[in-house]
From TrEMBL:
<dbReference type="InterPro" id="IPR002563">
    <property type="entry name" value="Flavin_Rdtase-like_dom"/>
</dbReference>
<dbReference type="GO" id="GO:0042602">
    <property type="term" value="F:riboflavin reductase (NADPH) activity"/>
</dbReference>
<protein>
    <submittedName>
        <fullName>NADH-dependent flavin reductase</fullName>
    </submittedName>
</protein>
<keyword id="KW-0560">Oxidoreductase</keyword>
<dbReference type="GO" id="GO:0006208">
    <property type="term" value="P:pyrimidine nucleobase catabolic process"/>
</dbReference>
<dbReference type="InterPro" id="IPR012349">
    <property type="entry name" value="Split_barrel_FMN-bd"/>
</dbReference>
<dbReference type="GO" id="GO:0010181">
    <property type="term" value="F:FMN binding"/>
</dbReference>
<dbReference type="Pfam" id="PF01613">
    <property type="entry name" value="Flavin_Reduct"/>
</dbReference>
<feature type="domain" description="Flavin reductase like">
    <location>
        <begin position="1"/>
        <end position="148"/>
    </location>
</feature>
<dbReference type="InterPro" id="IPR050268">
    <property type="entry name" value="NADH-dep_flavin_reductase"/>
</dbReference>
Length: 152
């Protein structure tokens, strides 16, 4: 699977106290345009899984190449996150956290799920979409490395 180049997203939701929680994910794709839906896969051994199950809403933030530090940071378990990257959130519709500066943001209601192995595949119906700076390049992941195709 490492030979499949993919974009990098950060999934956002709320924890039980209403604080934004984030997780890097590259298991993301479009499902259909009418209605606009997408899917993400979340491992059962992550804190994110429990929060998504409880909230039934997610934000999907497509990262710009300048956000590699955030991609790395949110790829770690919360107790293993080191450093203090500069980031902030804006609350979207239904209190779904939007990671400020993302290339694209999708605010989704979970409308379906399928448990397979150690992951749940969530289908999200897009309720809100925002596009950031039109000149941004996407952050990519390829061959187990962060990849910047615009500079290769």
């Amino acid at each position: 699977m490492s030979k499949f180049a993919t974009g990098v997203t950060v999934i956002t939701t709320l924890d039980p106290s209403g604080t934004p929680h984030s997780m890097t994910a590259n298991a993301f794709t479009s499902v259909c345009l009418d209605p606009p839906t997408l899917l993400v896969c979340v491992a059962h051994n992550t804190i994110t899984y429990g929060y998504v199950e409880a909230q039934q809403r997610i934000g999907v933030n497509v990262l710009r190449e300048e956000q590699e530090e955030l991609g790395r940071y949110f790829a770690r378990r919360p107790e293993q996150r080191e450093g203090n990257p500069d980031y902030s959130y804006t609350m979207g519709t239904h209190n779904v956290p939007e990671l400020d500066g993302s290339m694209v943001f999708f605010n989704c209601d979970i409308v379906g799920s399928h448990v397979y192995g150690d992951h749940t595949i969530y289908v999200g119906e897009v309720q809100e979409m925002k596009s950031g700076d039109g000149d941004a390049n996407p952050l990519m992941f390829y061959d187990s490395h962060w990849y910047h195709p615009a500079h290769e």
